[in-house]
Amino acid sequence: MINDLLIICGNPEVTEQIKCAIPGNIKMHFAADLPTALSSPDNYFDLIFLDVTTLRDNVSNEFQKAVQHFNSYNPLVQFVSMAPTERVRQAVQIVKNGAGDYLTYPFDEAEIRLVFKTIQTGITRRLELEYLRNRIWKPDWLEITRTSSPIMARVFESIHSVASTIATVLLLGETGTGKGLVARLIHHHSHRCNGPFVVVHCGAI
To answer: Full-prediction pTM beyond 0.70?
Structure first.
């Protein structure tokens, strides 16, 4: 479900075309360039239309900066890159770097609606998948496994993948990074969860 949308574009005509093509129940925000968007107090968005002409020379690095910033508020945020026809390669490059789709302008409003609908369907599926993943965890571990961090989400995915196997797992990390917690999480979600969890302090042997 898309509720909040951000358009980062310095061209009023392009912005207006997108406004006209997007359903009226969507809350829209606007920024003329990326620095303005990054400094805005509004940071939670479901979808961001990003014009490559608002980015500096290194388009890929600027895009990654935007992804890191907005992902920290909503890990499921999606991007659509936009560009004039002569800069379509840069729009495509942003898609290769993680954007969900791209548009070239002048726009066909039907194309904007199609891209919007495709992104919206993708977000809905990801939310459904997130819901199913949360049902995997036992109730007493839900507060620990809920996270807005994409990195921790991948860690928990790995934990779930290995917990159902009989594989031996080696956890490496500095003291205090949570190796013991991860070990307990694996044990409690494995086929051996009814057995004892035995902790051996190897350094004391």
So the answer is: no
